[in-house]
Write a structure and sequence with these properties.
alpha+beta, OB fold (Dihydrolipoamide Acetyltransferase, E2P), 37% helix
């Protein structure tokens, strides 16, 4: 265990362990701590550093690189395509009655959705409604006049 007394080897092993751990933990976070450890390892190779300075450098480099570079390397930050056109103007069927100020549920594309309306007209089960907008998992609907009721 004399290898661990050498700061160059110690920080290199910490960095390698972080890199290996990154493969088992999603999110692209641990790799930045591995990079911080390797930077400290390289600096210890060039110049002798006290343990408090090594720890401070590790924290600064790790968190700094995490904050500055994570968005570049994390593929999960892409918001994806805008699916508004898949909803607006489409027809849904009321599953649970909807009143102004009291949400209900509708079915759209085979799935049940929470739905709200601004209409004063109560929307009863089985009624066809038009989707006017959506906010996350809530659809905002308006009644379709009785004479225009059609299959979705």
């Amino acid at each position: 265990m004399d290898l661990l007394k050498d700061p160059v080897t110690f920080w290199f092993i910490v960095g390698l362990a972080c890199l290996v751990a990154e493969f088992s933990v999603p999110g692209v976070i641990i790799v930045f701590f591995g990079a911080g450890a390797w930077v400290v390892s390289l600096l210890c190779l060039v110049t002798p550093l006290s343990i408090p300075v090594q720890i401070a450098l590790f924290i600064i480099v790790s968190i700094g690189s995490l904050l500055l570079l994570r968005r570049k390397f994390n593929p999960g930050t892409d918001p994806g395509p805008d699916l508004t056109e898949d909803f607006i103007g489409r027809t849904a069927v009321v599953l649970e009655p909807i009143r102004k100020g009291r949400p209900g549920r509708v079915t759209f594309k085979g799935a049940a959705w929470k739905a709200e309306t601004r209409s004063e007209t109560p929307l009863e089960k089985g009624r066809y409604v038009s989707i006017v907008r959506h906010d996350s998992i809530v659809l905002h609907v308006e009644p379709i006049p009785e004479e225009e009721q059609r299959l979705p």
